[in-house]
Design goal:
The protein has 150 residues and is an alpha+beta fold. The chain is built from 5 helices and 7 strands; from the N terminus they run E-E-E-E-H-H-H-E-H-E-H-E. Helix 1 packs parallel to helix 3 and helix 3 packs across helix 4.
Length: 150
């Protein structure tokens, strides 16, 4: 979950989406890719994105979250696994992201070296409720399945 702020680009799934606000964060604040990183690290039993890419480390200032995902892919491979599939949900009131979902899947699949058919990206609203419903931020959740190479 990241707050929406003025003066930042809105990046989701590595796609810049035209919108009046962007997401606040140390990196590019791509909440979708962050959720995917966390789900993959969780499936690996390797902590979370904050442990691997802390927001106080200047190396990650403004970095593309797809580069962080690439590092997570490396950890997965080093541990003897591969990504079997991903399912991700973005909770967002606006803008509508359906027109960008195909490119998001393509960016994620290229970064992870898997087929776009192994990735599902979808969106839902918060029906006007809470932080997301009030258009103050965007949240995302993801579930990942890893397969052993052994």
């Amino acid at each position: 979950m990241h707050p929406l702020v003025e003066g930042r680009k809105l990046i989701l799934g590595g796609v810049e989406i035209p919108y009046e606000k962007g997401l606040a964060g140390h990196s590019d604040a791509d909440v979708l890719v962050h959720a995917i990183c966390d789900s993959l690290l969780g499936a690996l039993g390797a902590g979370d994105i904050g442990q691997h890419f802390p927001d106080h480390d200047p190396r990650f200032q403004g970095i593309s979250s797809l580069l962080l995902l690439k590092e997570v892919k490396f950890l997965i491979a080093q541990s003897g696994y591969l990504v079997a599939n991903l399912d991700a949900t973005v909770i967002i009131e606006e803008p509508k992201i359906f027109p960008y979902a195909r490119q998001m899947k393509e960016n994620i699949s290229q970064t992870l070296g898997i087929s776009p058919q192994q990735i599902n990206v979808k969106a839902t609203t918060a029906e006007g409720l809470g932080f997301v419903g009030e258009r103050k931020g965007i949240a995302a959740y993801a579930v990942a399945l890893l397969s052993s190479l052994k």
